[in-house]
């Protein structure tokens, strides 16, 4: 039976998995590809991708999970509490405070710093310095939020599979 609590649970799981899939794909293809570029190419490409990702489809999964995960937990709450409920709570906490939290508190400020950098007028030394200031911290944070998001997604998938 398709009840509201199960529909929201599947929607929360789907939006979380979509975003984590994007992050995983970025980790295994974009990060290594960007690493091969020179400083000007790297900074230009990263600026372009950061600007392009700010779109409604990205925000659907990114913000959708923030809304749907707590809603799924609320709708799946019952006494006594079930394994399904606790898996949803774990997934929500991991995603909101891990994946979403790291993104908003750490990655976004780095993205904004990079976006303000004028590549066209910068010297080669300034480009190298900006890349050094940005690349390693951003990548470390990105890989961390990806792993946390993966664990959150596993929690949500298992929650979909266990009895309420």
From TrEMBL:
Keywords: Membrane, Transmembrane, Transmembrane helix. InterPro entries: Anthrone_oxy (IPR013901). It comes from the Bacteria. The chain crosses the membrane at residues 7-26, 57-77, 84-105, 143-162. This is Uncharacterized membrane protein. It comes from Chitinophaga niabensis.
């Amino acid at each position: 039976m398709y009840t509201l609590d199960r529909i929201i649970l599947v929607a929360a799981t789907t939006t979380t998995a979509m975003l984590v899939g994007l992050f995983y794909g970025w980790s295994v293809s974009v990060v290594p590809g960007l690493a091969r570029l020179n400083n000007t190419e790297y900074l230009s490409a990263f600026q372009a991708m950061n600007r392009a990702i700010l779109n409604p489809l990205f925000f659907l999964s990114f913000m959708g999970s923030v809304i749907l995960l707590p809603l799924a937990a609320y709708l799946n709450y019952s006494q006594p509490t079930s394994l399904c409920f606790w898996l949803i709570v774990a997934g929500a906490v991991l995603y909101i405070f891990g994946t979403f939290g790291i993104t908003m508190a750490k990655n976004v400020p780095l993205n904004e710093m990079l976006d303000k950098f004028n590549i066209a007028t910068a010297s080669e030394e300034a480009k190298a310095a900006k890349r050094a200031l940005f690349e390693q911290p951003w990548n470390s944070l990105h890989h961390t939020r990806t792993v946390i998001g993966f664990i959150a997604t596993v929690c949500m998938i298992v929650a979909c599979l266990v009895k309420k």
